[in-house]
Design brief:
protein kinase activator activity, ATG17-like_dom, Autophagy-related protein 17, rod-shaped
């Protein structure tokens, strides 16, 4: 807009007959330009409205940016724990399951060893009963059986002790795995709560900025309307500048056409004057020669002078003549 207005300010109007808003101003020294014929106040008002809307848009954008930064600081202040890799936890669970399976196997072995001890104890009781019934005298075979059972019992007890130690070890390992899983799930819950806090902060930001977005969109629409009006004015002013060039050329063309018509009129006037004088002479000659012999009531108009024809302009022809030529700008 500034460029096209400057273009109009620098385009001086030629010819005194082009009307200027400053013709009646005292002094009359101000240069007459195309800018004198536009409504600068309307242009200033349109630019002022556009700038006002743009300032409001900038204020809304700045407020949203400040709000976004505050929410970002709030989000960054939230500590989000990072649990161990889930594969590690699932691996621990699988190992715990394997330990449980081994423990169940050990329990089966203990049950079997217990049954063996019970069996040996039953055999010992039977041997003692037989010994009592026979008067306390053991046969060689009974002695061997009793000795064998007595030797196997410590071995079975040792196996039971080993199995219990294994069960205790696996129980400790299972407890460690369970603690790891519990820690993972505790971290996961804490992480979920932290993420929930972040989501709440972002949701609050979106909710608070939603109202400003409506006003922002309304102002943006107004700016687009003002810009369309501005471009329409710019287009009109450019066409005005071009139309003025065409106007000066048209005035020059009309002046030439009028000059040609005026020349024709002057020629016709001169020829009519000559013809009129010739007619006057011929009528005078006729009247002088034959008039005395003609009664006055026979042809009264024979004494009349010839009519005079006048060719004249209709309209103000002097205005075009005073306008400067397009070629002399």
């Amino acid at each position: 807009m500034s460029a096209v207005l400057e273009l109009l300010r620098n385009r001086e109007v030629v010819g005194k007959e082009f009307r200027s808003p400053f013709d009646s101003a005292p002094g009359g020294t101000r240069k007459h330009t195309l800018h004198d014929h536009i409504d600068q106040a309307a242009v200033d008002a349109l630019q002022g409205k556009t700038e006002e809307c743009l300032n409001h848009l900038a204020e809304i954008a700045a407020a949203d940016v400040a709000l976004a930064r505050a929410v970002l600081d709030e989000v960054q202040a939230i500590e989000v724990p990072v649990p161990d890799d889930i594969s590690v936890t699932w691996g621990g669970l699988r190992e715990a399951a394997a330990l449980l399976a081994e423990t169940l196997g050990s329990v089966a072995d203990i049950r079997q060893d217990t049954e063996m001890i019970s069996h040996h104890c039953a055999q010992l009781q039977d041997s003692v009963k037989d010994l009592e019934s026979e008067g306390g005298v053991l046969s060689l075979d009974d002695y061997k059986v009793l000795l064998r059972d007595t030797d196997e019992i410590p071995l079975i007890i040792a196996e039971l002790q080993d199995a219990l130690v294994g069960i205790r070890r696996r129980a400790d390992e299972t407890n460690v795995r369970s603690l790891q899983c519990a820690a993972f799930f505790a971290d996961y819950v804490e992480q979920s709560q932290a993420i929930g806090g972040i989501s709440q902060a972002i949701g609050g930001f979106l909710s608070r900025s939603e109202s400003s977005q409506g006003e922002f969109q309304r102002l943006l629409t107004e700016v687009e309307v003002f810009q369309d009006e501005m471009w329409n004015l710019i287009t009109w002013y450019r066409n005005f500048h071009g139309a003025y060039d065409a106007l000066v050329g048209e005035v020059h063309r009309r002046r030439q056409a009028q000059a040609q018509q005026h020349a024709v009129v002057e020629d016709v006037r001169a020829r009519l004057d000559v013809m009129h004088l010739e007619e006057v002479d011929r009528r005078s000659e006729f009247v002088d020669k034959f008039g005395p012999f003609l009664p006055s009531d026979l042809c009264p108009f024979i004494q009349d002078p010839p009519p005079r024809f006048i060719v004249d302009e209709i309209g103000d022809v002097e205005r075009l003549a005073s306008v400067q030529s397009y070629d002399t700008q």
